[in-house]
Amino acid sequence: MTTQWKPRKKKLDPLEAELEQSVRKYAEKRGWLWLKFVSPGYDGPPDRIGMRRGRVIFMELKKFGEKPEPHQLLVHQEMRDHGVEVFVVDNLEDAMEILR
């Protein structure tokens, strides 16, 4: 019997997953359309995209104290160079401040 190899999906650290869930709940309560952002074939964009009243932001959520990978920082800077708001957040309080 042969089994077919399946790539493993990246599992979020429980603390990072908890932060993502808390930010999503807060964003939606404040009227944001809060979506998971996926860009097939392009590695490094932020995890989430938020839209509210004509404002569009991207947010990379990290476990407390963690920083984005170097390739992510390059993509974030490229997006900022195009006038896009990109935030890296590792705690709920900072996310709440951005979403107010």
Task: Provide a short characterization of the protein structure.
The chain is an alpha+beta fold and 100 residues long.
Could you explain how this protein is built, in words?
It contains three helices and four strands; from the N terminus they run αβββαβα. The model has no long low-confidence stretch (mean pLDDT 90). Helices cover 36% and strands 21% of the residues. α2 links the parallel β3 (55-61) and β4. It is α+β, with helices and mostly antiparallel strands and 100 residues long.
List keywords for this structure.
Trna Endonuclease, Chain: A, domain 1, 4 strands, 100 residues, four-stranded mixed beta sheet, alpha+beta
Radius of gyration: 15 Å
Unreliable spans: none
One letter per element, helices H and strands E, the order comes to HEEEHEH
Strand content of the residues, in percent?
Answer: 15-25%
Distance between the termini: 56 Å
Binned, the helix content reads 25-40%
Structural class: alpha+beta
Q: Architecture in CATH? A: 3-Layer(aba) Sandwich
Note the quaternary state here: single chain
How many domain modules? 1
